[in-house]
Design a protein that fits this description.
The protein is mostly beta strands. It has one domain (about 30-125): Immunoglobulin-like (Sandwich). The chain has no helices and ten strands. The chain is elongated, with a radius of gyration of 22 Å. The protein starts with a strand and ends with a strand.
Length: about 130
């Protein structure tokens, strides 16, 4: 597919230039990432007075798709604390192992919310991005 892009300024008279971008669309495998273990089997128990940025759990998913990257996201949940207002957890990726590291974003309060149920999603994207500018 060939796309033509125009850049135009607001001068008097207006100036413009064009470029063509060739976009190649490739078929991706429909393989889903696989968790390396069933993390739902063992609940994580933590004290409400752990410091901010405490590592709660390390999780990892793998993919059979060549040249792919696994991305992780905490899905919005039923309680506002899981949906960002206020946020209680965040994730960081270990660059060496590609594990997702779940950490505390703020101090936890047992009286306000004694239990969190987090849904963590793993998705795969392929590292195939090719643009030809002429």
């Amino acid at each position: 597919m060939l796309v033509e892009v125009e850049a135009r300024d607001k001068g008097v008279p207006p100036q413009s230039t064009f470029t063509r971008i060739e976009v190649e669309i490739t078929e991706l495998s429909n393989a889903y990432p696989q968790w390396v273990e069933d993390y739902s089997l063992v609940p994580v128990r933590i004290s409400e007075n752990v410091p901010v940025n405490t590592i709660i759990k390390r999780l990892k998913a793998t993919s059979s798709v060549p040249d792919s990257v696994v991305h992780y996201v905490i899905q919005p949940g039923e309680t506002p604390e899981q949906n960002g207002q206020p946020r209680s957890f965040y994730i960081r990726i270990d660059d060496i192992t590609n594990e997702m590291i779940l950490l505390t974003y703020r101090t936890l309060d047992f009286e306000a919310l004694p239990q969190y149920v987090l849904t963590i999603k793993a998705a795969v994207s392929q590292n195939l991005h090719m643009c030809v500018f002429s």
